[in-house]
Design brief:
The structure is a single chain. The protein is α+β, with helices and mostly antiparallel strands and 125 residues long. The protein contains 4 helices and 4 strands, in the order αβαββααβ. Strand 2 and strand 3 form a beta hairpin. The radius of gyration is 15 Å and the shape is globular. The termini are far apart. Bound molecules: iron/sulfur cluster and zinc ion (ZN).
Length: 125
Amino acid sequence: MSLLKPYYAGFIHLSRAAVKATAAKIRGAGLLRENVDWPRKAETCERCPLRVVQCGVSYCGKPFLQQIARDPVVDGCGCPTRAKAKDPKEHCPLTSDHLPAVRDNNSCNCKWCNGLNPLSIPSRT
Ligand code: SF4
Ligand SMILES: [Zn+2]
């Protein structure tokens, strides 16, 4: 099993990325909730040193398929930033001081939430 562990972890990461990509497409069709304030979050990403632009699209770090094994705090998550910002479940992995963000049910100190309760940030269908 230990020999297979890296492959299993890679498979899990790929599966999550596929689920996120599918959700982003469904959200783009207006069938899933999106953050009302996603432009503010996406704008934060545009000023972030982790941002990578490829083919005119901003990503949180290198696009996921170019680096499957990654630490989101160091490498970013690899998601397109606009799609990530629209997903009410997503958070930035960093604080405004570029330290690892911490969140619980009542608050989040990531760059996007900055200490706000993530549940209080509105979303719309
Ligand atoms: S989600 Fe956070 S770390 Fe990723 S690009 Fe946006 S601001 Fe930077
Ligand atoms: Zn947050």
